Amino acid sequence: MFALRSSTLRTASTVQRCAILPAVVTPPVRSLYKKAVQPPKHFTKAEIDEKVLELLFDYTKVAQDKVNLESNIIKDLSIGRLDRFGLYWDLQTEFEFMFLPARSRTRELASGREAADWVASILEEEQRLKA
Fold first, then answer.
1. From CA 24, how far away is CA 40, in angstroms rounded?
2. In whole angstroms, what is the distance from residue 56 CA to residue 84 CA?
3. For residues 116 and 110, what is the distance between their CA atoms, to the nearest angstrom?
4. Which residues does residue 129 pair with via DSSP β-bridges, in sequence order?
5. Which pLDDT tens digit goes with each residue over 23-39?
């Protein structure tokens, strides 16, 4: 039923041999764990007020002459719920700290002054507030 075909067999002499290569050296992998840790930044109260005001300018939906630290975030500056969360998150990123829970904190910050005072109190606890 099946016919056997003769095939040529390869012998050791007909097979080309590859040269054995040395182990491939891979470049070092950059890792978060091997990064040099930068010392935390220190801020003065005036620097905190200035940076909070800059963040309010980024998130506000009203004319910029109406934006100041005493303005109410919801009523005067018309910053919505998601933008308040973004503002809260940017405050943490800008001043390099993490404070949870985010949801209740965004409801509590009523003005730019309260946000600046809250950041100053966190930095004071971490001993990062300059006199």
1. 40
2. 10
3. 11
4. 43
5. 566 666 666 666 667 88
DSSP letter at 123? H
Three-class SS of residue 53? helix
pLDDT digits (tens, 9 = 90+) for 48-76: 999 999 999 999 989 999 999 999 999 99
Go through the domains of the chain in sequence order and give each one's CATH number.
Answer: 42-125 (1.10.1200.10)
Share in percent of the chain as helix, strand, coil (round to 5): 45, 5, 55
CB 110 within 8 A of CB 74: yes
For the chain, give the number of residues.
131
**What is the C-alpha separation between 99 and 129, in angstroms, rounded?**
17
Question: Which residues, other chains included, contact 128 with Cβ-Cβ below 8 Å and sequence gap of 6+?
Answer: 40, 41, 42, 43
